[in-house]
Design brief:
heterodimer; A: 5-stranded antiparallel sheet; 27 strands; B: alpha/beta; 8-stranded mixed sheet; 3-stranded antiparallel sheet; transmembrane (chain B)
């Protein structure tokens, strides 16, 4: 997928040069919206910038260029997220989802010595904290850094071909750090927007101008990806990808009811939902597009298109099974030509083109189109400039209506019902992961990670019969079905110490031995106060297993008083666990084709960074929510310090006095009796001196005591006129 | 042998006492005299705005600091010259029903958080050591420019602190304290390093005046919201948020600044005129370590606005290196900066000469009896004498111990020349 993106990018670069503007900086902006539930709208922004110039940029941010050129890095990925993706309600995410808090993932060039690596990390972390206003300097000490761990993709690398092996990650050193409790707010967005050529004054980014909507969203994620690459001609370049993902709750209910009553009533407007308008076009943008996901299933639209275009029909078995081929329900719609104007009420424009994700079989030269991808929706593409020309300083983009659904939240049963009806996209997640702590002890506890696979996923796994993706890494007994692999990555801070011998694995509630199911493992124990523990496990889970549970006991460390954060009683964050699995629906070669009248196989192929990102890769990652582990915390109240200090002074005083009065003059024990008689006077003098010493010390240190002493002296009638004038 | 091992820690202790003794006296090292500093032109403005309180219930302290941020940003100080330290996320807090907004008033007409805000230190990063590092400029080499106070002897610096405090301290992030002496030392170090031309420090805490009473660095103006044994009270309880929104002193300050703009000629005296005990329920006070200044001479925009007097010089300095390490680029950039008009070249020559003395000025708008001079002197004298007594008694104690040890040594039958060897 990286290669695909890379090709797309290079193509864009070439295009920009071919057009004749000599700019070495390119900028493209895209926006994707989709309904993830009847009330929730997903809005995903993606801004891509690239440059091959080393300085004198027209639009590329210089700070990023400098960062990439000074540090020996391949790629840096940074994400800041608040809220979590609700898998049960919103289903499988269309775009990459990140765990709550901040995640920093850097891959540096291979061959750096450990010391240089730490220096690079420190420089990177500080630079990014300046660039994103996040408190990354807390990642300065390596307590939160973990190595790359096992990547499922790398595990499968020998069979997935050379695509991932060529990736920049291979051979580099990956460092990863998480701050689970990092807030996300306007101060992070401000410097982030500063990296865009038009900030939020023009272009699609101006839709982010109403901050209360952006940060009032139920899921907000800000991403920044920086990558060095080289063009085919060998020119070095830097690429910067910025993303914002929002899931906004909209009060569309009334509008929806209206729509049910009067189908022609205007629906939701994208700019109304976001509370901001796009007034101007951002001039440096090479591409500025809005993609709206169609609520209708792509299969139906594909069938319509095919019927209308009169292409060869009923090639695939799917089509004939559906029975909609010769003259289906869509034929009527197709003949009236409403396919393009579908769901766009109001004045009829010619603004959009419908894109379908079609799968290209691996062997064919690319003309024979098999079917559409089941994992991706059909998209309607709009050009911002065209929309702005029509609209009066606004996009005026009407969103389609979400699928009418029962007003109750779609629970699992509802989802299954929907799936039975043949709709796959609004359905629940394939795989869910949750994690919790057991035990209320201050010293010991256990953590449970539970992974649930949906019935559909299992059915698909069984049907796939391990064709296609076959893993080889570390597999005993020949072929391991790649798609039945589940990899878990969990990072433990050093004060939470898991006992790996207590690790038990349960498949559907039945304890199974770990070894036969283990495909790969990498366990790095934590180092006290310096680095976290990392547990990476890859398990082979038979397709029939619906639920996998992992349990491990841990003990909690005692911290010193200065190691506690200010809010120690809140509990200590354990970063999210990552569960990765292979998506059986993934199609290796997806092309987005425009449904223009004409032959299906000869339709225009559209590509863009966002579109290629949607069909990114076979590995899906699911993050658990954060976890709080309570640790024993002392009483931090103010008197604590005072008591500590004063009792120390008192203890020293009494200790010294006792020592003086009870100990004999000679430690050896054979002192002459006359010596002690002689030293009695000396002892008294010493005791007196010590009293004076400590009281004078106390007076010197404590201002209040001085004041009290002064008042006492004044009461006793001493003249207190040390005028120093 | 036993003698020398016994004396090691004790002598260290003596050294420690001596150091404290020296520390209590005023050892003045002045690199730049106040005249030199003030005759340097005012070329840039910097602001260090700090809130020190964590947790949702301290919403008002964050709003205090954001109010001043709102003021200085409105009056033209850019984000690059503002160091903002916010220990907790209030605007996007899950308990905030109005996300990404902070209000000083229940009418919700002024969002002090704004559309563009850059917080430089936040969360656990707001610590005493980071604050002192920002003031004194003693950072780790990796710290980015946006987190540094890069002021010089021609900068006017505004420092604002808001949080929970007490007698000579202010709490940071609920776990540590900044003490008055540390603050005074940091400011003295700033003065010696030429990190400011004039410095205005405002503290809004309970017993704020005590935190500032040790400041002795030259050309510092301090404003405190309350006196010893006084509280700095909150204001504007919001039923929607369920708590107080702002503190009274800052509310009054913000209200005053909302009425002025960058061209305003308002002075500190005008600002002080708006403070009243009836409204704030506390007595504010100010101090100026430069005796020649009066509140009516200090324009507010000198500190809160960006009214720099910038001139270009013909010789290219090390700044050119900053333009991508390229001297040609520096020339290219310089071509776009206009030369000074002749009439504003040396307005600073008009400034009156200052006397070299920097007399402490105490001026307290205070109806209650202020601490008398003799009281302060007595306390200082007791402190000095008690230190002296401690030192004397310790020396005496050591002397006796030494004599006695000598006695044992002879009683054990050691040769007397051994002791001379040891000593």
């Amino acid at each position: 997928s990286l290669m695909l993106q890379y090709i797309v990018w290079t193509a864009g670069l070439m295009l920009a040069i071919a057009v004749g503007c000599n700019a070495q900086d390119v900028f493209s902006e895209e926006l994707l919206t989709a309904w993830v539930s009847p009330q929730h709208l997903l809005v995903h922004f993606r801004f891509d910038q690239g440059t091959t110039a080393s300085r004198l940029h027209t639009s590329f941010p210089h700070a990023i260029q400098q960062l990439a050129s000074t540090l020996r890095l391949h790629a840096v990925e940074l994400s800041l997220t608040s809220g979590r993706w609700r898998y049960t309600t919103w289903g499988r995410p269309l775009v990459a989802v990140t765990p709550v808090g901040a995640v920093l993932d850097a891959s540096l060039r291979a061959g750096l010595k450990p010391q240089a690596l730490i220096a690079h990390w420190a420089a990177l972390v500080n630079a990014l904290s300046g660039l994103s206003c996040a408190s990354f300097s807390l990642l300065h000490d390596p307590t939160s850094i973990s190595g790359g761990g096992i990547s499922l993709r790398q595990l499968l690398a020998p069979t997935t071909g050379n695509r991932s092996a060529e990736g920049p990650v291979a051979g580099g050193q990956r460092l990863r750090a998480m701050l689970p409790h990092e807030p996300l707010c306007t101060e992070n967005l401000t410097p982030w927007l500063r990296l865009l050529p038009c900030r939020d004054q023009a272009g699609l980014a101006s839709l982010l101008r109403h901050r209360p909507t952006v940060f009032g969203a139920e899921y907000v994620s800000l991403g920044l990806m920086l990558e060095r690459h080289a063009t085919p001609k060998g020119r070095r370049g830097v690429r910067l990808v910025q993303t914002v993902t929002l899931v906004i709750r909209t009060a569309l209910k009334r509008a929806q009811q209206q729509q049910q009553a009067h189908p022609s009533a205007p629906g939701a407007d994208l700019e109304t939902v976001l509370g901001a308008r796009v007034e101007h076009f951002c001039p440096p943008a090479m591409r500025s597009e809005v993609l709206v996901a169609e609520p209708d299933s792509p299969e139906g639209l594909f069938a319509t298109w095919r019927t209308r275009s009169g292409g060869v029909c009923c090639e695939s078995e799917d089509e004939s099974q559906n029975g909609s081929c010769p003259l289906g329900d869509y034929a009527a719609a197709a003949t009236t030509g409403t396919l393009d104007a579908h769901n766009t009420p109001g004045p009829v424009r010619e603004p959009s083109r419908l894109l379908l994700p079609v799968m290209i079989p691996a062997g064919s030269p690319g003309f024979a189109v098999e079917a559409v991808s089941q994992a991706l929706p059909a998209l309607r593409r709009y050009d911002t400039l065209e929309l702005l020309e029509v609209g009066d300083r606004a996009l005026g983009l009407q969103l389609p209506y979400p699928h009418p659904q029962p007003s109750t939240q779609p629970h699992i049963a509802g989802v299954h019902e929907m799936r039975a009806n043949g709709d796959d996209r609004l359905a629940g997640p394939d795989l869910q992961a949750d994690r919790y702590v057991t035990g209320a002890n201050l010293l010991h506890g256990a953590v449970v990670l539970r992974i649930q696979r949906s019935r559909e996923l299992r059915a698909r796994l069984e049907a796939s019969q391990c064709t296609g993706w076959r893993g080889s890494g570390g597999a005993e007994g020949g072929g391991t079905c790649g798609s039945s692999l589940v990899c878990i990555n969990q990072l433990f801070p050093w004060y939470v110490r898991p006992w790996m011998h207590t690790l038990t694995v349960l498949y559907d509630g039945q304890e199974v031995p770990l070894r036969p199911h283990l495909v790969a493992q990498q366990v790095r124990p934590a180092v006290q106060r310096s680095s976290p523990g990392v547990v990476d496990l890859c398990l082979r889970v038979p397709p029939a297993v619906a639920e996998v549970q992992l349990r491990v006991a841990f003990s909690k460390a005692f911290l010193t008083v200065f190691e506690y954060p200010p809010d120690a009683h809140r509990g200590f964050d354990v970063p999210a666990a990552v569960v990765s699995y292979l998506d059986p629906l993934y199609a290796p070669a997806v092309q987005w084709r425009v449904t223009s009248p004409g032959d299906v196989s000869g339709a225009e192929v559209v590509s863009s960074p966002l579109l290629s990102g949607l069909s990114a890769g076979p590995v899906k990652q699911v993050y658990t929510v954060g976890l709080l582990v309570p640790l024993a915390a002392p009483d931090f109240s103010m008197p604590y310090n005072v008591i500590c200090l004063s009792s120390t002074v008192l203890a020293v005083y009494f200790g010294a006095l006792l020592n003086l009065l009870t100990r004999r003059g000679c430690a050896a024990g054979h002192a002459a009796p006359e010596r002690s008689k002689v030293s009695l006077g000396g002892k008294a003098l010493q005791a007196l001196l010590m009293l004076v010493l400590f009281s004078a010390l106390a007076l010197y240190l404590d201002a209040e005591l001085r004041q009290h002493a002064m008042e006492l002296l004044a009461k006793l009638g001493f003249p207190l006129e040390f005028k120093l004038k | 042998m036993s003698l020398s091992s016994g004396r090691g820690p004790a002598s260290l202790f003596i050294v420690y006492i001596c150091l404290m003794w020296i520390g209590s006296g005023r050892v003045g090292i002045t690199a730049l005299t106040s005249t030199e500093r003030l005759t340097s032109r005012h070329e840039s403005n910097w602001a260090v705005l700090v809130s020190t309180s964590r947790f949702w219930l301290n919403y008002r302290h964050i709003v205090n600091t954001m109010s001043i941020y709102h003021v200085v940003k409105r009056l033209g100080i850019p984000d690059s010259n503002i160091i903002l330290m916010i220990p907790d996320d209030m605007a996007c807090n899950a308990r905030n029903p109005l996300p990404a907004q902070l209000f000083n008033n229940e009418s919700h007409w002024l969002d002090v958080y704004g559309q563009d805000v850059e917080v430089d230190y936040r969360g656990y990063e707001v610590t005493v050591s980071n604050f002192l590092q920002v003031l004194t400029g003693r950072h780790d080499s990796n710290v980015p420019r946006s987190k540094r106070l890069m002021s010089d002897a021609s900068s006017n610096v505004l420092v604002y602190l808001s949080g929970h405090g007490g007698d000579e301290f202010i709490k940071f992030n609920d776990v540590e304290e900044l003490l008055a002496q540390d603050l005074a030392d940091a400011l003295a170090q700033m003065a010696e390093k030429g990190r400011y031309r004039e410095l205005l420090m405002i503290v809004e805490t309970c017993e704020a005046a005590t935190l500032l009473q040790r400041v002795s660095a030259p050309d510092v103006i301090t404003i405190a919201s309350s006196q010893k044994d006084e509280q700095s009270l909150s204001f504007k309880s919001d039923p929607e948020l369920g708590m107080s929104l702002i503190d009274r002193f800052t509310y009054q300050t913000l209200a005053f600044f909302e009425s002025i703009d960058i061209k305003s000629a308002a002075t500190l005296a005008d600002l002080f005129g708006t403070y009243s005990y009836e409204f704030m329920q506390s007595h504010f006070s100010y101090r100026m370590t430069n005796a020649a200044l009066r509140p009516k001479d200090v324009k507010l925009t000198d500190f809160f606005g960006s009214v720099a007097d910038i001139r270009t010089t013909s010789d290219r300095g090390p700044q050119d290196i900053m333009y991508h390490g390229d001297a040609q680029m520096g020339r290219y950039m310089a071509a776009y900066i206009d030369e000074d008009a002749p009439w504003d070249i040396d307005s600073t020559l008009m400034q009156p000469d200052m006397s070299n003395e920097s007399i402490m000025m105490w001026k307290i708008f205070y109806t209650a009896p202020s601490p008398s001079d003799s009281g302060i002197l007595n306390r200082e004298a007791i402190r000095a004498w008690s230190g002296f007594m401690a030192l004397c008694s310790l020396a005496l104690y050591m002397l006796i111990a030494h004599i006695r040890m000598k006695g044992y040594r002879t009683s054990w039958g050691l040769a007397p020349e051994d002791s001379s060897l040891v000593s």
